[in-house]
Amino acid sequence: MKMKLGLSTYTLTWSVGVPGYARPQEALTAEALVKLARSHGLNLLQIADNLPLHLRTEDELLRLKRTADEHGVELEVGTRGTEPELLLRYLAIAGTLGSSIVRTIVTTPDLAAAESHIREALPAYEAADVVLAVENHGLHTTGQLVQLFQNLNHAHVGCCLDTVNSFGALEAPDHVVRALSPYLVNLHIKDFDIRRVDHMMGFEILGTPAGEGRLDIPQLREIIAASGKTGVNAILELWTPYANSVEDTIAVERDWMERSIAYLRSVHFMEEEDNDYATRNVERESL
């Protein structure tokens, strides 16, 4: 099974900027991320809520679309929340940027209210042929999200399945992937490790490069293949821990990104992109 692999604003989160920490010396823009993805042989970028697109003017969005088109990179848009006005605003942004999905997160414990909000926006999504991808984010259990998707029962809403987020709901990745894969419309690949703290009384869940942690990526591939969802896009995300300074952490996350891409390519998880293009441009692009 091969899927189209892309980067996200949550692949290089420290390079974009993390609230509460020093700003990067040169924070990555969406345009820079487009070029970075292409220089690594990828033609997909998901721009999520940590680089909010609704703060851009229409002219700025059009310039971003031109940059993506010039580099042959498909854009996906993301936000957080289910208020109808927000979902419709991001549907318009998806139209401008040519995104086939809008990824979002349910931010209220009240799933019934979120369901009502989504129902209100769904006719417009259907008319535009854009899919609303609701991410599991730890606030709700997998069972609750399955019930949400069953209640909505609509071809233009599904799951943006994150492999690690549901630890927040005390659920392991294999259970989450099996339960949510029937509703899969977008995948976030995020690897992890679990370690005891130094005094032995407790554990930490930490990110790792893809293929270097406890996420069973071959099993993930098999489950998705069995569900018949092999045509969805896969987005690499990283939980890179802080390392001494923001600039040191940026260097770590860039290294993790490269190791992750290399691993996913080695196990044939991703489609083969135009790697000649990457070779020609990796030295030319100054990011």
Automatic annotation (TrEMBL):
Residue intervals of the Xylose isomerase-like TIM barrel domain: 35-258
Pfam families: AP_endonuc_2
InterPro entries given in the database record: IolE/XylAMocC-like (IPR050312), Xyl_isomerase-like_sf (IPR036237), Xyl_isomerase-like_TIM-brl (IPR013022)
Protein name: TIM barrel protein
Native organism: Paenibacillus glycinis
